[in-house]
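User: C-alpha cells in, sequence out, please.
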C-alpha cells in the first residue's frame, strides 16, 4: 500500500531532522566553547545532512503524489491535506502524528540555527575588533564574555608619546 511506503519515507525524514538538530546543537557547543578549529567540520556535517534531506524530500514528493492520486486529491497535496483526506481508519492519525513531530523538529532546528548564526556573527565581530586592536587601526576591543558579548575594557588613563 502506498500509504505505508509514504509513512516509512516520513520516518526517514524525521530521523534526518533529528540528526540535523543534533549536528546544529553540536555546532553550537563548539561555538560556545570557542573550539573554532572544528567549526568547519561541524558545518560540513550539517551540509551533508541537508543534502541527504533533499534526496529524501524528493522521494517523499513522489510517494505523496501516489497516495494523493489513490485518495483522489491533487498530486501536490500537503501532509496536512493528506491527513484530512485519509480514508476512515488509522492513516489520518499516523499522518497527523508525522506532521506534528516534523513541525516541532523544524521549529527547534530554526531556533538553534538562528542562535548559531548569532554566535558566528559575534565571533566574526570579536575577531575583527581584536585584529583592529592589534594593528592600532580601531577602537579598543575590550573584553569578551563567555557568550561572545562585548564588555567594556579598561578605560583608565593612557599615556601617549607625542614627541616622537
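Assistant: Sequence out:
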Amino acid at each position: 500500500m502506498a500509504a505505508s511506503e509514504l509513512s516509512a519515507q516520513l520516518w526517514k525524514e524525521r530521523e534526518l531532522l533529528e540528526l540535523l538538530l543534533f549536528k546544529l546543537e553540536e555546532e553550537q557547543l563548539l561555538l560556545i566553547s570557542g573550539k573554532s578549529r572544528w567549526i568547519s567540520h561541524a558545518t560540513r556535517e550539517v551540509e551533508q545532512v541537508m543534502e541527504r534531506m533533499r534526496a529524501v524530500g524528493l522521494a517523499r514528493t513522489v510517494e505523496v503524489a501516489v497516495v494523493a492520486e489513490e485518495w483522489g486529491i491533487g498530486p501536490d497535496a500537503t501532509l496536512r491535506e493528506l491527513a484530512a483526506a485519509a480514508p476512515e481508519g488509522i492513516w489520518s492519525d499516523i499522518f497527523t502524528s508525522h506532521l506534528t513531530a516534523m513541525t516541532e523538529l523544524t521549529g527547534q532546528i530554526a531556533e538553534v540555527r538562528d542562535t548559531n548564526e548569532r554566535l558566528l556573527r559575534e565571533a566574526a565581530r570579536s575577531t575583527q575588533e581584536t585584529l583592529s586592536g592589534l594593528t592600532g587601526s580601531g577602537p579598543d576591543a575590550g573584553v569578551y564574555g563567555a557568550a561572545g558579548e562585548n564588555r567594556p575594557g579598561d578605560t583608565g588613563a593612557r599615556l601617549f608619546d607625542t614627541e616622537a
